[in-house]
Amino acid sequence: MTKHNENSCENYELRLADAAELAAERGEQVALSTDLSAHVSSCARCSDALDAISVSRSLLLAGFEPTAAPSPFFAKRVMATIRSEEAQRTLTSPFWSPLQHLAARIAMGAGVAVMALTAYAYTF
Q1: 3-state secondary structure string, 15-43?
Q2: For residues 52 and 67, what is the distance between their CA atoms, to the nearest angstrom?
Q3: How far apart are CA 9 and CA 7, in angstroms?
Q4: 53 closest CA partner among 107, 111, 12, 105
Q5: Does residue 5 come out as left (phi exceeding 0), alpha (psi in the -120 to 50 range) or beta?
Q6: Alpha-carbon torsion 100, 104, 109, 111, what sign?
Q7: Cα–Cα distance between 27 and 66 in angstroms, integer?
Q8: Measured on CA atoms in the order 65, 70, 75, 79, is the torsion positive or negative?
Q9: The model scores a pTM over 0.70
Q10: E strand or H helix at 10, and its extent?
């Protein structure tokens, strides 16, 4: 159940919200029934609430309408660019390259030490 809106009458709040939701689904202006229209014309709070709904809806529609449709290959170009940039980063990473070389040397040194200790332990 929806919360009580202080800008509209309690009896007509749900009906105003339903009319606005129905208009949004259909992509039309908010259409009111005759009794709801009569109430809105006589009640300043409900009239203000309906104006707020209309303004909010128009602002949302203006903010989300795309100006132009993307080309059919837009997603493919974006993904190809992402893949090429990731490949470039892995090939020429200035930060990780020295650490990779250091880790390889430490691993080789540890392997040699393990082999030497194994040979030493095996002789006893």
Answers
A1: HHHHHHHHHHHHCCCCCCCHHHHHHHHHC
A2: 25
A3: 7
A4: 12
A5: beta
A6: positive
A7: 15
A8: negative
A9: no
A10: helix 10-26
pLDDT in tens, the chain (124 residues): 344 445 447 767 777 777 777 776 666 666 777 777 888 888 888 888 878 877 777 777 666 656 667 777 888 888 899 998 888 877 766 777 788 889 999 999 999 999 999 999 988 8
Q: Which amino acid is at 30?
A: V
Tracing tokens 């709801």 back to the chain, one arrives at 36
Side-chain-facing half-sphere of 6: CA atoms under 13 Å: 0
CB distance 109 to 117 below 8 Å: no
Neighbours of 19 (CB within 10 A): 20
Decide: residue 30, CB within 10 A, 0-12 exposed, 13-18 middle, 19+ buried: middle
Question: In sequence order, what DSSP letters do the residues of 40-79 get, joined into one string?
Answer: HHH-HHHHHHHHHHHHHHHHHHHHH--SSPPPTTHHHHHH
Looking at residue 46, its amino acid is C
